[in-house]
Specification:
About 5% of the residues have low confidence. By secondary structure, this protein is mostly helical. It is built from 5 helices and no strands. It is globular and about 40 Å long. The chain has a domain of 73 residues.
Length: 122
């Protein structure tokens, strides 16, 4: 039941008209700025040390948290938050295909797009 409610709410939010191509993205809400900073810093460390297990785990954790908080943030428009969260979850799933949170939330977003008959963002 909760998934169907989530799908309905997301579908209603995503039904907004698409932003014009020349529109600048909305600034990131203040509560997401530290999460984005942590995501970027752990990504940089992991890029420099791709075989370092601690760097890999830190990047996966930071990316998953940033993706989740982006997906549920009430101030972000649906047309951006679901697309951005999907991109972040895909980064996690490349490294850990069975990551429980990333897999579940990635699949939820994909199913919402599919149920609406909309193309899934790449």
């Amino acid at each position: 039941m909760t998934v169907s409610i989530a799908v309905l709410l997301a579908a209603a939010a995503m039904a907004q008209t698409a932003a014009p191509k020349n529109e600048k993205p909305a600034p990131l809400p203040a509560s997401l700025v530290p999460l984005e900073k942590n995501y970027k810093s752990t990504k940089a460390v992991f890029a420099k040390k791709p075989k370092d297990k601690a760097a890999r785990e830190a990047f996966i954790k930071a990316t998953t948290i940033f993706g989740h908080e982006t997906m549920i943030h009430p101030e972000l428009p649906a047309r951006t938050k679901y697309r951005d969260a999907l991109r972040l979850y895909r980064e996690v799933l490349k490294l850990e295909p069975k990551h429980p949170v990333a897999k579940k939330e990635h699949d939820l977003i994909v199913s919402i797009y599919e149920q609406m008959g909309r193309p899934v963002p790449k």
